[in-house]
Design goal:
By secondary structure, the chain is of the alpha+beta class. The chain has 2 domains: about 100 residues, no CATH class; about 60 residues, DNA Binding (I), subunit A (Orthogonal Bundle), CATH 1.10.30.50. The protein contains 9 helices and 10 strands. It has a 5-stranded mixed β-sheet with strand order 2-1-8-3-4. Strands 5-7-6 form a 3-stranded antiparallel β-sheet.
Amino acid sequence: MTRIELERVLTLNRVWQPLTTLVLRGALVLVSRGRARIVCPQTYQMFTWEQWLAERAVPADAHVIEADYIRTAAMQVRIPQVITLAKFAGYPNAGVPFSRRGVYERDNGRCQYCNAVVHKRDMTLDHVVPVSRGGATTWGNCVLACARCNHRKADRTPREAEMNLQATPQQPTRETLLLRGVTSQPAWAPFIGKATEQVEAK
């Protein structure tokens, strides 16, 4: 895969709340179509694609730090690190809605009993306190489990099954989820704040 398909760009909503990270190709498509603008992390100035090319592109033969630029036949363009969507202002500061995908990302794709890596297509959700015994389908009562551990635990609590949880399940923040499995960039810190520090400390 090429860099344009591997590099990640932090994506903010219209009111500058972090939503997700996009591959560079997807981010550039949004900006070039006018659906997003590039944000300079140092000055917070916003740029359209034309403005970005005018200020952050150099000739193809210019000497630059290659990791910071993408090359075309005619020029080298500074890689944007943060973009903000032009219209979408969703996801206010409310809690993160519960979802299977969210549990998978919160638990970093690992079974919370044996710590084995679990592919998304093979994932199962385990209710720490079984539903049959009053357990709810919530962040605090659901964990990612491999099929083997889920079958072994069956309709019991972890203590009854003599199985230890890797961590106490909790509701994650949106910022923590979006950084799972992604290498956080220093330029993202002002937009993510404490969530970045928490993830990097783990």
